[in-house]
Amino acid sequence: NMGDSYIQQQHGIMLKNSKMLLQLVNQILDFRKSESGKLTLQASKSNIVPFVQEIKKSFDSLAEKKNINYQLVSNSENIQVWFDKSKMKNILFNLLSNAFKFSDDHGEVTIHISTLSKKLNSKLVNYVKISVVNFGYVIPEEYTNLIFDQFYQIDNQKKNLGSGIGLSLTKRLVELHRGKITVKSSVAEGTRFSIILRLGNEHL
Hints:
Blueprint: H1 2-35, E1 44-47, H2 48-57, H3 60-65, E2 69-74, E3 80-83, H4 85-101, E4 108-120, E5 123-134, E6 153-156, E7 159-162, H5 164-176, E8 180-186, E9 190-198
Helix pairs in contact: 1-5, 2-4, 4-5
């Protein structure tokens, strides 16, 4: 029955919208908590690769709809990281939502996961790096340090590029993990948001 399938489709859209709204409300509550210093980290040790793969799936249908080449590239199957699952989900959701929002149709969005080591006070420290890269709108260099500001919005012709509280909260959630978030943007390399987290748990 034509009517039934239409109603089912509408219900599906309503459910999806209410889930997104709930996600947004939770973000605002988290943001308020982070402002008052009440946001706490519930970190446990887990393999972050399948965790990211699961979250990646949430955007598969959007990628299909926009004809975006969407993939995850990891240099390892198993990277044990101490992280807060609900907060990491929030971080990745925000970065992926942004990546898709500012991608051109037929563009590409890639998630990269890799490990790296750096010397810290003459001691070798291991990190995991998760990057989300998209091609499309390029953030002018003078704006890249403003992008995590809670009220900051780039006004670009018709596109109102509001990071709003999304990226501001993302940065706070990364810092709660004692991690670092950076952004680089160019026509050739695309826009790359990278999160760097220390492995182990002595820093937490």
